[in-house]
Design goal:
The complex is a heterotrimer of chains A (298), B (265) and C (296). Chain B contains ten helices and ten strands. Chain B is α/β, with parallel strands linked by helices. In chain B, α3 runs parallel beside α6 and α5 crosses α6. The radius of gyration of chain C is 19 Å and the shape is globular. Chain C has one domain. The chains are: A mainly alpha (298), B alpha/beta (265), C mainly alpha (296).
Chain lengths: 298, 265, 296
């Protein structure tokens, strides 16, 4: 039981980092990134590929972070003249492109089989001790990511981002460089996502193109919407709830007699219904975005 | 200060601006009037970098800013407001004031993350400034309210306050009195006169002639993308082409002049 | 080369039927419906279910198209109208959610293995050195006929004028006597019907699987965007051009440029659409036939 809870906890923390990243883009800035999984994949593959060549995982994180950051900034700049829906489709296309490369460049990526036996965390420990240490590590990383996301959201940069979401012309008229602000928030979020991907690959010691399917992005969207678009704490709450829900539905076959195929369908269906339900009935999510009150005079 | 020189701008073959020019001297308060569709908004957009002219030049404080990004124009000291404020409901009045200010450190990710104390000092200074402007425009009691929930007139006033947070050298106001109730309108006119006394240059696009004659030293009249007159507000009724532009070419002259007098009185 | 042309005509027709519908909805509601492609998948599966229940192929296909068209209006009235009320961003995420839900339900009901429509075994005919089947010829003819009919309806009938009027001015409540709500209903029915037709034609030509719609998502969006969203003619031309490009890059011996033999792997076929889409969005976001959008 403890092992199971630790497992879910680790997964939830990994997803929470991902959700914090996506919330900065979608919730705060209004940038509908349907290709979030590409940044995660860049981080995961960087760690895995370098590891398979005997390079330390820390280097993998650095390389993945740099590649993802640059990619994020470029994707952010692509939004120069695009309306938000075209841009969303473009990000989906880019993520699919990343998946196609992962699938077809077998020499580097292991093709459809992916890369397994990625170096793990705390390999000197074993069993529950190892899971506990892994959980502590990823939880610490989550705290750091949370603080970063909150600082960014609650400072002047965060105000600029929210204004870009609500009224970009007004932001531009108040001397805020809208293009650079978008590119920078995309770069920051991409780095967060790639770190998340690196840890994910190390935790399950595997990465393959099957993990880069658009559904992976969709799952994180559900977390952000359920938690509350634009609310940093909401992203973490949403990640926790949806991880428990999605992981819990793995056991659906213990309850009803259906094929593996149908079970997979049900798991996806549950997530889809939750997302659509929230969008229709409680668009602001469980922890709605707050209007910040003024600081008192000194 | 601001020179808009022979601007031409076409949309799908239709000329919105057909060689319009204006020149605003430092410290001046200039009005820009003209019938609907005469190109006033387009001119404002071109001057503030929101639209690119097909032909012509825009110069601001001696710099050629033709085709520059709106934020680059704004960084040189030109801040514009919009006809419809559309302030967000997710930001408080104070947050909106702060976003109008120059918090250079807080706007970078690096300083937000690594220079907590300096960012805090910067915020505190900006907050003080915001309070004093809010006092001045009498919105201090609403500082924690969502900006988008204010009345139309209050949003216009707040937009002006946000613009002032960045100490602009020149303000471009797009119909500041549209949808504003009479008492706020008087307040707005007072603010603009005070600002002018403080040395801020103002260019106002406006329909309300009384407001124009209250706050402007000089007024440009735009019709069908061309500048047809430039004079003191009181001299507007001396220009037959102005009346014609406003009241239509078929209206009788008697009706025209009496209506103009009414508008000017 | 003939092979490339046949391939282009077949795939171009499938993409065009979807792209024109996508562009029509985008034109009238200013919203990109990601679930649009799932109408094709739905059409295919409904036809499979009906033929399975003993109905003939033609009847099943027609019923499939009608059912999907009605479903689309139901989706619009129950879901999209409400979602659009919360803004286009929410509607866009919502359409993605609906797409996922439709796919999940189909997987629950039909499983994930591909299903086939009962089509008679056909012998491919030789056409200037390449093979073409009678069902492929039918597919191309039906698609072209529908696209031509749509063009005529849009250009010359009062319904078409009403649709164009709503697209030109979405805020207008009533358009020359035709109720705006009814116009939007018709647009959803027509575009979903065309999508279902595309899905059924594709299922007859090959098979229907859960991923049928998703695999078409990016090529269709590429065609609609390259054609200029809102322009049905642009979308049609772009669909065939894209299909040609996809087929062409696989045929070309890229290695010859550098003095070797290198063919792009077939796996990269969808990449053509992505690359075209991204390049297009970066450099000419209004599309080939689209109006220029004012910045600011």
């Amino acid at each position: 039981m403890v092992d199971y809870l630790l497992g879910v906890g680790i997964l939830a923390a990994v997803y929470a980092i991902n959700a914090l990243s996506l919330n900065l883009q979608v919730g705060v800035t209004g940038l509908l990134n349907f290709g979030q999984v590409a940044f995660v994949g860049i981080g995961a593959y960087s760690v895995a590929i370098l590891d398979s060549h005997g390079v330390h995982w820390a280097v993998g994180f650095a390389v993945g972070g740099i590649i993802a950051g640059v990619a994020g900034a470029l994707v952010g700049r692509l939004g120069r003249t695009l309306s938000s829906d075209y841009w969303a489709i473009a990000t989906l296309a880019l993520a699919e492109l990343v998946r196609l490369v992962a699938l077809n460049q077998d020499g580097f990526t292991g093709g459809a089989q992916g890369l397994s036996a990625v170096a793990g965390l705390w390999t000197n420990l074993s069993g529950t001790a190892r899971d506990t240490a892994t959980f502590a590590t990823i939880a610490a990383l989550l705290v750091v990511t949370y603080v970063v996301a909150r600082r960014v959201r609650n400072g002047q940069y965060g105000r600029v981002l929210v204004l870009i979401r609500e009224n970009p012309d007004l932001a531009a008229s108040l001397r805020h460089d809208v293009v650079s602000a978008k590119a920078r928030v995309m770069a920051l979020s991409a780095v967060m996502a790639s770190v998340c991907g690196g840890f994910y690959a190390m935790y399950i010691s595997f990465i393959g193109p099957s993990q880069l399917l658009p559904f992976a992005t969709f799952l994180v969207f559900t977390m952000v919407v359920v938690g509350g678009l634009g609310n940093t704490t909401g992203a973490v709450v949403g990640a926790l709830l949806i991880t428990v829900l999605y992981d819990g539905t793995r056991f659906v076959r213990d309850w009803i007699d259906i094929s593996a195929d149908q079970a997979a369908g049900i798991r996806i269906l549950v997530i889809g219904v939750v997302l659509l339900g929230f969008l229709l009935v409680r668009t602001q999510g469980l922890v709605p975005e707050k209007v910040r009150t003024a600081h008192a005079r000194r | 200060m601001l020179v808009v020189d022979a601007i031409k701008k076409h949309y799908a073959g239709v000329a919105a601006l057909d060689g319009a020019s204006i020149e605003v001297e430092p410290g001046e308060s200039v009005g820009l009037v003209g019938p609907n569709g005469s190109g006033k908004s387009t001119l404002l957009n071109v001057a503030s970098g929101f639209e690119q002219p097909d032909e012509g030049k825009v110069r601001l404080l001696g710099n050629d800013v033709t085709g520059k990004e709106p934020w680059d124009v704004a960084k040189l000291g030109l801040v514009r407001t919009f006809q419809h404020a559309h302030l967000p409901t997710k930001m408080s009045v104070m947050d909106l004031m702060l976003v109008g200010g120059q918090l250079a450190r807080g706007e970078t990710i690096r300083h937000s993350l690594f220079s907590w104390s300096r960012v805090r000092d910067e915020e505190a200074a900006a907050t003080d400034k915001a309070w004093s402007i809010l006092d001045r425009i009498k919105l201090d009691k609403l500082a924690s309210h969502p900006g988008g929930n204010l009345s139309g007139g209050q949003q216009k006033l707040l937009s002006l306050g946000m613009a002032l947070m960045g100490d602009p050298k020149i303000l471009l106001l797009d119909e500041p009195t549209a949808g504003v109730n009479p008492s706020l309108r008087v307040q707005l006119a007072e603010h603009l006169r005070t600002l002018q006394a403080e040395g801020v240059t103002v260019l106002t696009v406006e329909h309300d002639m009384r407001f124009i004659s209250d706050v402007c030293d000089r007024v440009y009249v735009l019709d069908r993308g061309r500048m047809i007159a430039s004079c003191a507000p009181s001299e507007l009724s001396d220009h037959p082409e102005v009346l014609e532009a406003y009241l239509g070419r078929s209206g009788s002259k008697a009706v025209a002049s009496s209506a103009a007098k009414k508008e000017n009185s | 080369m003939t092979e490339v042309l046949i391939d282009t005509a077949v795939r171009g027709s499938i993409i065009a039927l979807l792209a024109v519908g996508l562009t029509l909805v985008q034109g009238t509601l200013q919203f990109a419906n990601i679930a649009h492609m799932e109408f094709a998948t739905l059409g295919g599966y409904i036809a499979v279910a009906l033929t399975g229940a003993g109905l003939g192929l033609l009847l099943s296909s027609v019923l499939g198209v009608v059912i999907v068209a009605v479903l689309a209006v139901v989706f619009y009235r129950l879901l999209f109208r409400r979602l659009l009320g919360s803004g286009t961003m929410i509607a866009l995420i919502g359409s993605l959610a609906l797409a996922i839900i439709i796919r999940a339900v189909l997987q629950l009901v039909f499983g994930s293995r591909p299903r086939y429509l009962p089509t008679p075994l056909e012998r491919g005919m030789d056409f200037h050195g390449a093979l073409i089947t009678p069902s492929q010829i039918r597919l191309i003819c039906i698609a072209l006929a529908l696209l031509a009919t749509l063009a005529v309806v849009l250009k010359f009938t009062s319904l078409g004028r009403a649709i164009r009027a709503v697209a030109a001015n979405p805020d207008l409540a009533d358009v020359s006597g035709l109720n705006r709500k009814r116009v939007v209903d018709v647009v959803w029915m027509v575009s979903a019907g065309l999508a279902a037709t595309s899905g059924i034609l594709l299922s007859i030509d090959s098979a229907v699987g859960i991923e049928l719609g998703f695999n078409l998502l990016l090529p269709v969006f590429a065609a609609a965007i390259v054609g200029g969203l809102g322009s049905t003619l642009g979308a049609t031309i772009a669909a065939y051009a894209l299909a040609f490009a996809e087929s062409f890059v696989l045929q070309v011996d890229w290695g010859a440029l550098a003095g070797g033999a290198y063919h792009l792997e077939v796996g990269y076929r969808p990449a053509v659409g992505f690359v075209l889409l991204v390049v297009m969005l970066a450099f000419r976001p209004q599309g080939l036939m689209g109006r220029t959008v004012r910045r600011g």
